[in-house]
């Protein structure tokens, strides 16, 4: 079969990703995440991540299989969560085994997950509201998996995951699930779907771990990977949404390549249009218009299923998909969280440390700062007045937002000590003696401290100003009057000042 590849590759000048990464992952290099560098993969099977009730009223325990590159010592690896296809009626998590192994050999951690399948009446299944309820149930399950692994990574880190780099994806129904989980925001839920979301726990769903809840953790993701997927409304994808990689056959009769209808699966003998959706070609155009990095690999003449049995197509998905995720997600340092100072801040002891955080986009960001010397704050712009050297170190802000932007950023702060300045004597009074010669001494530590001095009033005798290092001794014959020797000790831009008054009768 001859193949024409239509690609759309957008690298945006200014990214505003949903998630916030501290910076790019430390293990990014020329090969990792785009090349098979680990020959073998280890698999941990049947990890319980959630539990919920199916449409038919059956309590379903949700499991995941976790794939890791054997021999990898990194503890900060991106996670990809994959969901299988099957029209929400069939399929199993092991269906994504080959894709999971491909990513794991490149250095990813991959979880293939269960989600609730429809177990009600097939006659009811073709009803748009019933079908979309099943989609939202699957979205709820996938978001629970995100929270489960994010909690684990943020606590015991069983699987060596960096929680700020989580990608979701899947094939067919699994891709539909990932697209809705990645791009539908609470404010974007259309009126006809509002009751469906409400019945399933809202935008984050109501699926949870039956033993150890991860409900307090974010469901945000940093990237989406879609094989033959579609979404309910194209305008779900807007500015600051996560990067998107897609593969689709342009002759797909099940999930449309462009705008069209999802059709009934083989289990239903009569072909029925279930619900209107927008396929990959429309999503590519929408993502580009919104400034969301995206790439579409189109399989010319390709259908819904057979293209994934084609070795050339699989090789192209492997090559293009992994490179796109590497360049736009896991090895990108872009972040929707802005901090000030951008890199590091140096202040002098006794000054005010001023920190600031904001989001590129979002609706109601909440800020949690932590840092040295037991520092905490929930202000977007906290300050530390009269800072001591104990305030030096790394300050981390975690931003959570009900809208687009959640993430983490780090600011380095150095509080430089002021030099010590000793003045002898504290004051000079020549009253009562038949003399007008005074001697004053200024000593500064540590070694290398510069001392500048001036005398007021100035003029004769000269000099009336000067410099020295570490110690200055000034002996001068002065006329009658009140004089002041002023000293400034400077080290690394930090200063300490003092003065000695002199009275001459």
TrEMBL record:
GO terms for molecular function: hydrolase activity. Residues 1-23 form the signal peptide. Residues 65-188 form the BD-FAE-like domain. Gene3D superfamilies: alpha/beta hydrolase, Immunoglobulins. It holds the Pfam family BD-FAE. Keywords: Hydrolase, Signal. PANTHER family: AB HYDROLASE SUPERFAMILY PROTEIN C4A8.06C. This is BD-FAE-like domain-containing protein. It comes from Larkinella punicea.
